[in-house]
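User: Structure please.
Assistant: Input sequence and predicted structure:
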Amino acid sequence: MSNQTVSPGALLAGRYRIAELLAEIDGARVWRAVDEVLSRAVVVDVLPVGDPRTNLLFEAARRAAAAADPRFLRVLDCDMHEGVTYCVREWAGGRPLERMLSAGPLTGQQAGWLAREVSEALENLHRTGHAHGSISPATVVVTDAGAIKVVGLATEAALRSAGPGTPEQDVRALGELLYASLTGRWPGPAPAWGLQPAPIEHGRLLSPRQVRAGVPRSLDDIADRLLGDPPRHHSAPITSAAGLSAALSGVVGSSHEPPSQMDETVAVARQNGSVDDATQIVPPTYAPPALDPTPTPDYQLGNGQTQAQPAYATAAETRPVRRQAPPPNQNGHGRRKPPQDEPKPRGSWGGRILILLAILALLSVVGIAQFLVKGAINNDQGNGGNGGKNTPTTSGPPPVTNTKATIVAAKDFDPPPDGNGVEHSEDVKKTYDGKTDTSWTTQSYFKRPDLGGQKKGVGIWYDLGQPTNVSQVTVTLVGDPTSLQLMVPADSGATTAPDKVDGWKSVAKLKDAGESAVLKPAAPTQTRFVLVWLTSLPKVGGDYQGEIAEVVVQK
């Protein structure tokens, strides 16, 4: 088998079904493939027979396998088959930064957050004495869930015969990436990655703020400290990933959540009162949409026609009508003169006394009746009721309060022997952050919606911190249809979440759910842990993948 015979449909090493060509690097080819053993997408780098980069690729794969940061896509396998050298890596669905920049520069919030994520991953890598060696807009991917993944750790440099690289080169490359993200221009003498070169004046690269209006001064300063030779204003250069992470965290904050709205706001101005001089990136604030006080005249029907908006009464119109007092009499005394046909009130006290005596007699009868009934009840309770026999009391199901339970922890659940425990654990917290625009996704599965027929299901278990009466769990899904179950530990007193599927029991099921699924047990169930278990996934492109945006547990 040669590099040229590795083509779509071919089965490499009896396991990896080649799907499509992603890139070609100096004769090496990068393929998307399907691992038919685990039924998941992978990326396969293939070198032709006798390629001199074979030993470089093997060595790079060993270095990459030692990286522990989840932002690096892992190397899963590296070997030779019929003379062909191949290296298998994780697959991450999303868009490379190169493609994103083809549509224009990012906002300051986006660019700062992205560079901070990559710098923190590199910081952890550099502590081990290794480097990525090929940081570029093509090796940084923003996944469909909004997370950052760095592709080609060590292996990309090996394919390009660039050597292992150094931490300093990684930091310089990240400075170029930040500059390009802020300006949409490449900070080099020639076009690169589909971007035009950044302008140079008097032999010096213009700063991002000189190229594009609106770039925050704080990020402009960081980019200049990365690329300036020397940096402006006698600033200290940034030469390490740790120093860059610290600088960026001071600008974009310490949250690892991707910015959902990339609005930039201006921080408190400095002593000179210039707002522009104190530009800072802060998390955006959200306000509920303003309600239009004026009624909409028409609303749309499902068939495309319109009809008049129903009228609604104002508060004044819905108050009870109070009878208006008649105007005063013309005699000026303010008393209404009764009409001639109205009966006049009796002036005798005899009738009034009789009425009072009747009322007193009625109250006496009611009081005696209440005394007798109460005595009978007390007597029955005193001897146990039912003729003196004690009747055991029974309690019904716990009351439903419809209040939201607090989730204190959660974890993806993909247990062996069928599962491999890798179901995007870094995104689990997004399913209970109160936002429906962040989500957790399963791995991609192929051929069949029931997870490729390889396993019973995957999901996330949630820890409520203490035994809680769970009345229902509402799951906001992305895509449809999804089949899922609500499960609780088989041992109702469990203090830890079961680590095997048979340690859970199903209390509610829903087949082919849409984007909102309500899982409701037959009766409120007391448990500390709940498991949202996906058993059939919606189709996404040519694959099957489940996605949970939000989970709410109700008491």
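Confidence is low (pLDDT under 50) at residues 261-348, 376-395.
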